[in-house]
Design goal:
242 residues; mainly alpha; 10 helices; 76% helix; 0% strand; globular
Length: 242
């Protein structure tokens, strides 16, 4: 059963730990302007394109993945010890999700503010921010999964390119869409950046396609739930093996 009391305590503890590590927190928040700056420089003199929208989605997936990829593995010893004293796995994971989501809202806010300030995105702001958040959330879910399944922070960090590169390879920006066949086509449907990108395509000003937009967001949320369930599964049944 989910333990609300533990969830509250763990969330507070994780938040205080995050604030206490000023260098790491500054780096996480600083990713937003560091990533948005080259995007602005590249597209400042051009009209928005599908490639720009894909870069938006991919960037926020990267934020989520890099933020979360070491957050469970670095506490493996602590988690194992606290499990002996009745730590609730669901509450533990939920506390990570809560604080990392709050961090993501800050990152995306900075990222989107800079992008919207200097570029003409031709997108509806509220829907765009919502899309970027769920793209971040999906990346965060993948990062938490790798953080648990990889076992060590180093392995989890090394796994980040293994998450990001396929998002690019299995996209229509590398090869035409009709060249994706068989297994490649199925893999493409698991790429969260694809669904973030498609959601952005459907929230252009004056051209909102609600059905397709909501479908893409639903897929993003659904994939996130799957990744988080796999993380929780490993926390439940492999907690004694780390």
């Amino acid at each position: 059963m989910f333990n609300k009391h533990q969830y509250s305590i763990l969330s507070e503890r994780y938040f205080e730990c995050l604030l206490g590590d000023f260098t790491a927190l500054s780096w996480m928040i600083g990713l937003a302007p560091l990533v948005s700056a080259p995007i602005v420089l590249r597209w400042q003199s051009f009209q928005p394109t599908d490639t720009l929208y894909f870069v938006f989605a991919l960037s926020t997936v990267f934020f989520g993945c890099i933020n979360a990829c070491g957050e469970i593995s670095k506490e493996a010893a602590i988690y194992k010890r606290e499990r002996l004293f009745g730590l609730n796995s669901g509450a533990y994971l939920a506390s990570k999700i809560k604080i990392l989501s709050l961090l993501g809202l800050v990152q995306i806010g900075i990222f989107y503010f800079i992008i919207e300030r200097y570029l003409n995105t031709d997108l509806v702001p509220v829907l765009t921010f919502n899309t970027l958040f769920w793209s971040y959330f999906a990346g965060m879910s993948i990062g938490l999964m790798f953080s648990r399944w990889c076992g060590t922070t180093l392995k989890a960090l090394i796994s980040v390119p293994l998450v990001i590169i396929p998002q690019i390879v299995f996209s229509k920006f590398v090869l035409p869409q009709n060249t994706l066949k068989g297994a490649a086509l199925k893999i493409e449907k698991l790429m969260v950046a694809k669904w973030g990108f498609e959601a952005l395509q459907h929230c252009k000003k004056g051209q909102i396609v609600w059905g397709d937009y909501l479908f893409s967001i639903t897929i993003l949320i659904g994939l996130s739930i799957i990744f988080l369930f796999l993380t929780l599964f490993h926390l439940w049944f492999a907690g004694e093996d780390t």
